[in-house]
Amino acid sequence: MAELKALRVELNLGIEENGFEMHSSFLCNDSINEITTEIEALDSDFPKHGIRNAEKKLSSVRNLVESDLLLEKARIYLTGKPEVVRVIVFDKTADKNWLVTWHQDKTISVSDKKEVDGWGPWTLKDGVHHVQPKLNVLEEMVTFRIHLDDANESNGCLKVIPKSHKLGILSKNEQDRIVAESEAYICSAKSGDLLVMRPHLLHSSSKGTEPNHRRIVHIEYSSFQLPIGLAWT
């Protein structure tokens, strides 16, 4: 119990020290309802559990991503003008109840494929080029996870390893060792809460034991100036 209490005290140090922060009641109910209503209105065969490029497919998400509310928030964590890197809507449900192993988000999505020293490998997801850049690019990024539903251990909320963003880009063996030696923090949240994190913070999520809607709008911003010939998507 003493160790858990010490961890909670350390969390007050914020994103630069721990790699993440929680903000309660960030998004109002009207905005939440607007997004969930548009999601539910999609065709029944639409893959609602994982909507990539969501700002291009859902007007309510586009309005949120481009809002002063989010852009002003992103400026707090970045050194320059926030640019949208990637937007995904996740919904973990009883029939799409997945496990995500411990990992770092190490790729960015860009407009074209171009050889850049130290960048790679390249992949294509939903028609968009993705690449793993150097660490300095990830350090000029911030991830917002906006909860449209309550999230807890029973429906598979996020878990993180505090301070792991300070360790750079890690190999799989290094990740496994750090996880084994560390205490995970369970990112329980209420509908409307915001989780702010660095993308290369170690994180995972378990399958829900009592799965229901666990809808998240996942948004990545960056102020990094991309090489000539590339643009954020």
How would you describe what is shown here?
By secondary structure, the protein is an alpha+beta fold. It has a single domain, classed as Jelly Rolls (Sandwich). The chain is built from eight helices and 13 strands. The strands form three sheets. The protein has a six-stranded antiparallel β-sheet with strand order 1-11-8-13-3-2. A hairpin with a 2-residue loop joins strand 6 and strand 7. The model is unreliable at 1-9 (pLDDT under 50).
Give me the count of strands: 13
CATH architecture: Sandwich
Helical proportion? Answer: 25-40%
SSE succession: HHEHEHHHEEEEEHEEHEEEE
Keywords: Dioxygenase, Oxidoreductase
InterPro entries: Phytyl_CoA_dOase-like (IPR008775)
Cofactor: Fe(2+)
GO molecular function, one term: dioxygenase activity
Topology:
Elements: H1 2-10, H2 15-18, E1 20-23, H3 29-40, E2 50-52, H4 54-57, H5 59-65, H6 68-77, E3 83-91, E4 100-103, E5 108-110, E6 122-125, E7 128-131, H7 135-138, E8 141-147, E9 158-160, H8 172-181, E10 185-186, E11 194-197, E12 203-205, E13 215-222
Antiparallel strand pairs: 1-11, 2-3, 3-13, 4-12, 5-7, 6-7, 8-11, 8-13, 9-10, 9-12
Summarize the structure in short:
By secondary structure, the protein is α+β, with helices and mostly antiparallel strands.
